[in-house]
Amino acid sequence: DANEPLAPVVHPANIEWQKVDRSADGFRVEMPLNTKEIQIPAYNETGKTDKVNMIFSNPDADTSYSLAWEDNPPVARVSKDAPDRTLESARDGTVARTQTTLENESTTSTQGFPGREFTARNSGGGVLSAHLIYAGSRLYMLTAAFPSAGARRDKDVSRFFNSFVVTRASGNGNAATRDQKKTD
Question: Could you say which of 14, 65, 70, 147 has the lowest number of CB atoms within 10 Å?
Fold first, then answer.
């Protein structure tokens, strides 16, 4: 019927990229302009929360790019620092917290560090693309979230994920490394 309202057409955001050098935090990456920094909660093994560092940018009202990182994060402690278990637990936690369903996943390696790349979708059609990298005892999680598949541009997600470079891996997270850090 010509009188029925049309559903809004969602287009990919127009993104202007910037280089973000966080070598002191162990990485460099390209992010959309106007990157902000916050700390977010991550559930730990006791059911309480630890603070995790995150930078993020919203190139439009419905699109978000973010990168969270933490040394010896709760998900690694629970997984006894085993890379595969840590990455699987981080993926499962992300899917649960975002109320999405896993659509696809691949095993990756970034500069020799183990990783996972996956896409998940929510019931409203929103799409989440994520790349996890476990570098030493530091877990990085890059995410790009979109209101619909039509708002997701493969080349932007690839640019974001492929621009990520580990500049300094953290220790292996074992007790000797933690004790050494305390005495330095």
Answer: 14
